[in-house]
Amino acid sequence: MNESLYIGATGMHAQQLNVDTISGNLANVNTAGYKKSRVSFQDLMVRELANRGIAVDGMSGEAGAVKQSGAGVGVMQIAKLFQDGELKKTDSPMDIAISGKGFLEVTLADGNSAYTRHGTLRISAEGLLAAADGSPLRPAIQIPADARDLLIDASGMVSFAVSGEKQRVEAGQIELVDFINPAGLAPIGDNLYLATAAAGEPTTGMPGTDSLGRISQGYLEASNVKLVEELVNLVLAQRAYEVSTKVVQASDEMLGMSNNLRR
């Protein structure tokens, strides 16, 4: 059997997934807090061939004999890259950006925790400070209806002014959560991630402490997608896909020659 057909097919499949991933990055180039994805490949070749009489899978072989063979490429993982994006000034008091490590923790509708770098905040119907999708921050921070002039300092302390009162009222403390391996977090959409065993145990602290980043009010973290870099990667992926199709085409022509030998 001509294995080159299958080798070319694995290359086409892998590069198609690569193109899909790059397309997702390009589509989110203007999405605040978005982290780009990268495809990692691995070869499928079996390299140990017992060519010196070494036992393979418990079976001894003759010196120089080939016991196994194989080839192709597969996708090892699609990982998120969590380099910081550029901070963009919005002047909105409900926008915050994290400069450095850390995630905002929110409570989902099912009670589980999720994590995000998207700093667009809002006040929910229950009066809680929440993420853009309405999920309240954890720990919960209550903002009364008569609050005005909301202020979030670099350490995450939230305060507001009340009509008729000279002193500001502290509403609560925004905390950040960090992971040993953020790339192990599981994305679930809406710029939200779930903790996994691969990400490690979460550590919680105040912004600006224990290597955690600081908070900047009136800013948003832009996507870390670099447009030119992604366009170059797209061209390379397209060329790699084209090469794999050439392999399939050449294998098909060789099979056609073999079929025509008796004519």
Can you characterise this structure?
22% of the residues lie in helices and 27% in strands. Mean pLDDT is 89; it is low at 52-56. It is α+β, with helices and mostly antiparallel strands and 263 residues long. The chain has two domains: 4-81 and 225-259, no CATH class; 87-221, no CATH class. It starts with a helix and ends with a helix. Helix 1 (4-27) runs antiparallel to helix 2. The strands form six sheets. Strands 13-14-6-5-12-15 form a six-stranded antiparallel sheet, with no helix packed on it. The protein has a three-stranded antiparallel sheet with strand order 9-10-11, with no helix packed on it.
Give a short overview.
The protein is an alpha+beta fold.
Q: How would the global form be characterised?
A: elongated
Number of domains: 2
Tally of DSSP helical segments: 2
Radius of gyration: 27 Å
Distance between the termini: 21 Å
> What number is the mean pLDDT?
89
Proportion of strand residues: 25-35%
Which runs of at least 5 residues are low in confidence (pLDDT < 50)?
52-56
Order of helices and strands: HEEEEEEEEEEEEEEEEEH
Main attributes?
single chain; 263 residues; alpha+beta; 2 domains; 6-stranded antiparallel sheet; 3-stranded antiparallel sheet; 22% helix; elongated
Itemize the secondary structure elements and their pairings.
Elements: H1 4-27, E1 37-43, E2 73-80, E3 87-89, E4 96-99, E5 103-107, E6 113-116, E7 122-123, E8 129-130, E9 147-152, E10 157-162, E11 169-173, E12 176-178, E13 186-189, E14 192-194, E15 203-205, E16 214-217, E17 219-221, H2 227-259
Antiparallel strand pairs: 1-2, 3-17, 4-16, 5-6, 5-12, 6-14, 7-8, 9-10, 10-11, 12-15, 13-14
